Task: structure prediction
Amino acid sequence: MVFAEDGAPHLRLATEDDLPSLAAMAEAALPEAWPLPLMEEALRLDHHRMVVAEAHGSVGSDRVVGYLLASLVVPDAIELLQVVVAPNCRRSGIATALMHWLGARCLAGGRILLEVRGSNRAAVRLYRRLGFRQLATRHHYYRPAAPSTAREDALVMAFTRQ
Result:
């Protein structure tokens, strides 16, 4: 897999053509994945941003390897709704690149808010490394990832841009 010259994936705004592959990627990665119709609605909303990360194949064909979905409801706060990276591309800087894209859109003094499963240790480590701090815990917030498991806590985290 080849990224841009600086090692980062190519980022661009999502299009409707991307949605089937993004929905499939989310379904494979997230127990609470959004269905395709909900993703289509999010793409049409002015206050949502959906960004895809592409890797360039050996024959020059681009391949979507991750995406980010965020809500920009108020000028000084962004809510991160989803960050998904294809399983075979994890730990290669894709989520970090997507989060840097989001951070660049955060106004000085503004915040990025998110919720993450407490059991998603890789994501929690990433967010902490990027400067997010835990604000609260929502106990028993997420449905069980598997039928035989209990509901999971959500960690509410925030990043404040200086």
Q: What stands out?
A: The beta strands are 10-13, 48-56, 62-74, 77-85, 111-117, 133-142, 152-160. The first helix runs from residue 19 to 29.
